[in-house]
Write a structure and sequence with these properties.
The complex is a heterodimer. By secondary structure, chain A is of the alpha/beta class. Chain A contains 8 helices and 12 strands. In chain A, the strands form 3 sheets. Chain A has a 6-stranded mixed sheet, with helices on both faces. Chain A has a 4-stranded antiparallel sheet with strand order 2-1-4-5, covered by helices on one side. In chain A, strands 7-8 form a two-stranded antiparallel ribbon. Helix content of chain B is 73%, strand content 4%. Chain B is globular.
């Protein structure tokens, strides 16, 4: 099977610091890949290179078999790579529907296209539909994001990605700062995405979460990829060893 | 994930009703306050003058509308900027710059023998363009070089002030043709009250003496122009993608950026637009007083910001409305006019405006606090 995303020998430097050091990574359709590592391991930088926030200094990224280069995040989104960041990238002062359509609002044209207005009716209906398929319920779609719980915000971000037909979803610490029940629900949503054949890269510090939903786990340490394991063939003890740098598959022994 | 609906349903209906009440009050208090203010002044003015003077007259209402024109125009541009989490301190002197430039261009063109309507049209346009240039530069510096808007527009304010003084030599630029005065003072409707009176459309009736004294101009051109602009900006802010993006940028600039909104370009447009509305205010000031004055806008800058705040625009960005700013401007103008008619020393106006500004923000905060308490039980 062709990988959906293929990262080859990616390097990203900030001045003298090599944040990502010759990292390769493949993600296949319908699979959830856990990306783990200690702070400053380079996970977030790697992700930002894939999603167009940063541009890699060396290496190649292939998406759906094609070599791609993203100058800005919008390029990546247009290609179908949706990133759900730690800080969620939602506007707290806007409602659920407005956030799902942020930056890609549906417009209605008047006077032969001279005047454009927001087509709120369409956007509400479409938002409702995608929320229904994901089994997410809100009292009303005008509710401001800042009035919602952490899990609900996460759900809005995921619904946004699904609506825009993400071909690859990247989630950065999606269960952080959530209550136990909400954590469970977010993990369920990731499971739903896998059912829909949308591959997910999951970045998390919470190893139980990673073991609960991933097929494979990639471990980074100080900018390098030190291990890649099938989730069923490893355990959290081993992963922690890799994260601490005690184990390293790239080291020549 | 049904927590949202459960959360709402869990409220006992009494506190839900209270919450609704708080929300409604916080939304309409400014209107109620304006109505109360009007009622108070009409009663007290009438009592103080033993019925000789009336606050609620057509003439007075038109005076108030004329008074809010520059404050409202600058406030509208400011509303957009502040919702996008910025501030524009340069509009006062940009208004002066525009006033001077428009007056100078008109005088020069008339001297060169250009026909009057054309000279006025070019002059007005020149004034607005002259205003937009510093706005464009400010916007560019704020968006691209990431310097706080407060600093950039403060600097630009001094620059505009200097240029306006240099161009005008510190004097009022007079010598304006009749058409300029008409633009600033004539009206859509004219009303002569009394037995021989009548309502006239577009053209002032040729009357003298007592009838002239009874002549009221209803909806003078600056008011008409301002309210057309207000409607356009209301539409743009609340109904279009451009407006939605202003809220998105003010709510979470990073999120807006990641959502693919061209944030830098938007910010540049907003400061240019803010300068343009100040420019229009400058041109209308030239028209109203038949002269270009560099200091026309300076005393109004803070009033326009006050109007924006009273209208409920959050200085942290992301919140506010055009109608709110209209109310804010009206409250200030009604109060100022009312106090003058009550023969209160004009200096009191400043104190009262200051109190209302602080009160307005307190009410907004109290609302959030009260609702927050209700929600956590």
């Amino acid at each position: 099977m062709e990988p959906m995303l293929s990262v080859r020998n990616l390097v990203k430097r900030f001045g003298g610091l090599t944040a990502v050091n010759h990292v390769s990574l493949d993600v296949y359709p319908g699979e959830v890949v856990g990306l783990v590592g200690d702070n400053a391991a380079g996970k977030s930088t790697l992700i930002k290179c894939i999603s167009g926030v940063y541009q890699a200094d060396e290496g190649e990224i292939f998406f759906q078999g094609q070599r791609i280069y993203f100058a800005r995040p919008m390029d990546a989104r247009r290609a179908g790579i949706e990133t759900i960041y730690q800080d969620l990238a939602l506007a707290g002062n806007l409602g659920v529907s407005a956030n799902i359509f942020m930056g890609r609002e549906v417009k209605r044209k008047y006077l032969g296209g001279v005047v454009h207005t927001l087509d709120e009716t369409f956007m509400y209906a479409a938002s409702q539909k995608v929320l229904d398929t994901l089994d997410i319920r809100f009292a009303n779609l005008e509710q401001k994001i800042e009035k919602l719980s952490g899990g609900q915000r996460q759900a809005v971000a995921i619904a946004r990605a699904v609506y825009w037909q993400a071909k690859l979803m990247i989630m950065d610490e999606p269960t952080n700062n959530l209550g136990v029940v909400e954590q469970r629900k977010v993990l369920d949503l990731i499971g739903k995405l896998r059912e829909e054949q949308v591959p997910v890269i999951l970045i998390s510090h919470t190893l139980p979460d990673v073991f609960a939903v991933t097929n494979r786990i990639v471990v980074m340490h100080r900018g390098r990829r030190v291990a890649e394991k099938r989730t069923s063939e490893t355990n959290s003890n081993e992963i922690v060893q890799y994260m601490m740098g005690a184990l390293d598959d790239t080291r020549v022994s | 994930m049904a927590t949202g609906s459960q959360g709402v349903a869990a409220f006992p209906s009494r506190s839900a009703r209270q919450k609704q009440l708080v929300l409604v009050f916080s939304r309409v208090w400014a209107w109620v306050f304006l109505a109360g203010l009007t009622a108070f002044f009409s009663a007290s003015v009438s009592i103080q003058s033993h019925g000789d003077v009336n606050f609620l007259t057509i003439r007075n209402s038109q005076n108030i509308l004329m008074a809010i024109v520059p404050v409202l125009l600058m406030g509208l541009g400011q509303t957009f900027v502040v919702i996008a989490a910025g501030i524009d301190l340069s509009v006062g002197w940009i208004m002066g710059l525009s006033s001077v430039v428009s007056a100078l261009v008109i005088v020069t063109l008339i001297d060169k023998g250009t026909n009057e309507p054309l000279a006025i049209a070019i002059g007005c346009l020149a004034g607005i363009v002259a205003a937009m240039i510093p706005g464009l530069i400010s916007g560019f510096i704020i968006a691209k070089l990431r310097i706080p808007s407060f600093i950039v527009t403060l600097g630009m304010s001094f620059i505009a002030r200097g240029i306006a003084f240099l161009l005008s030599g510190g004097n009022v630029v007079g010598g304006q043709p009749q058409g300029v005065r008409d633009l600033g003072n004539e009206a859509l409707l004219y009303l002569i009250s009394g037995p021989n009176g009548g309502l006239y459309f577009l053209r002032a009736p040729a009357v003298t003496g007592e009838a002239l004294r009874q002549l009221d101009r209803i909806l003078q051109w600056p008011v008409v122009i301002t309210f057309i602009l207000l409607l356009i900006m209301l539409f743009v802010l609340h109904k279009t993608q451009f407006g939605r993006h202003i809220y998105a940028i003010g709510g979470n600039r990073e999120a807006a950026l990641r959502a693919g909104i061209p944030v830098d370009r938007h910010i540049i447009v907003l400061y240019t637009l803010s300068a343009a509305t100040a420019g229009i205010a400058g041109v209308l000031s030239t028209a109203r007083f038949s002269g270009g004055s560099s200091i026309a806008g300076d005393p109004l800058l803070l009033s326009s910001i006050a109007a924006v705040i009273i209208g409920g625009v959050s200085m942290f960005g992301g919140q506010g409305s055009v109608s709110g700013t209209l109310i804010g401007a009206l409250i200030i103008a009604v109060m100022t006019t009312g106090l003058v008619m009550l023969n209160v020393q004009p200096f009191w106006q400043y104190i009262v405006v200051g109190v209302i500004v602080i009160l307005a923000v307190l009410i907004d905060q109290a609302r959030d606090l009260i609702i927050g308490r209700m929600e956590t039980g």
